[in-house]
Input
Amino acid sequence: MKKIKLIVNTVTQNYPIIIGKGVASNILKIASENSIKFEKCLIVVDKNIPKNILAKIKRSLVKKKIFIHYIKATEKNKNLNTSNSILKILLDKNFSRQDCLITVGGGITGDIGSFAASIFKRGLKFINIPTTLLSQVDSSVGGKTGVNTNLGKNLIGTFYQPKLVISDINFLQSLPEREKICGYGEILKHSLIDNKNFFIFLNKNFSKIISLKSPFIEKAIYESCKIKKKIVEKDEKEKGLRKVLNFGHTFAHAYEGTLNFSKKLNHGEAVILGMQTALKFSMMDKLLKLKDYKLIKNHIKNSKLPMNLKKKFSIKDINKILSFMSIDKKNQSKKINLILLKNIGSPIINKEFGINKLRIFLKNELSH
Output
């Protein structure tokens, strides 16, 4: 079993990310190698996860006392009620802080489970086993936890680092094409905000990455995690630099909210549309050179990534989009804070814009 190990070193916690084929069959061995001990664990699992994945994980936890809790991992269920259902089991089964919570699923499962772990007795051991490409390259790294409210995404949450992340590439085989594309959106984002050479690699090898061919998929996941690791280590609690990870997300979260967090647009697709909008805005505001804009746009087009905003929204949606943008967590005033791009690898943070400017821009985007 060939595995890649990446260590994330934050102020509050150092933890390994293990990437490779079949690594989830060796959870206890990997945990032991990294001095992680527990006797009892609660596995919080997305009920849509294939049974063979959960069976593999259970087999790898032999001799441990295991409890399993299934959740319906949707944006609408990513709420305090679902977190409470996890906390109730931890309390009923008398979990201590030396026991462990393990999440198995995508980013929603990881976010809900890690949030519950962070507030149970002020901190329970937490292992994340992300099963989607999106969660393996993004939400499993960095310690952001959270749940949604009717007013927006992730408005209630904590920063809480896991003890261990295990990214088993074999689990990606069961993903539909749409889910792979969603994960690729975050990989692309990481290249755009940090590393032009990585973008060139993606531009050249997109089809091999999306079809999960080795060693291209491993490199894409590793490089993506490495970029996020570097940023998180410098700014664990998003005081400044870490905001660059939200490139495209101010628009993306507003798009998701406008469609009521429905399956019409999932998070990865929203991020791709949001990045495209941010790129266009960057160019229109004379921040991003036309040459770089065209290079990125051609990559999105040639890769057949979701890119048609007008298929999802019309001018009548603008007020709703702007209302969601106005409650974004990055905002410090009545203006809207956007993460934009100067060139590939060079993001710009803390640029603020009035709602009227954004209204004119969106009206132009949705009417042509």
In short: The radius of gyration is 20 Å. Residues 216-234 form the longest helix (19 residues).
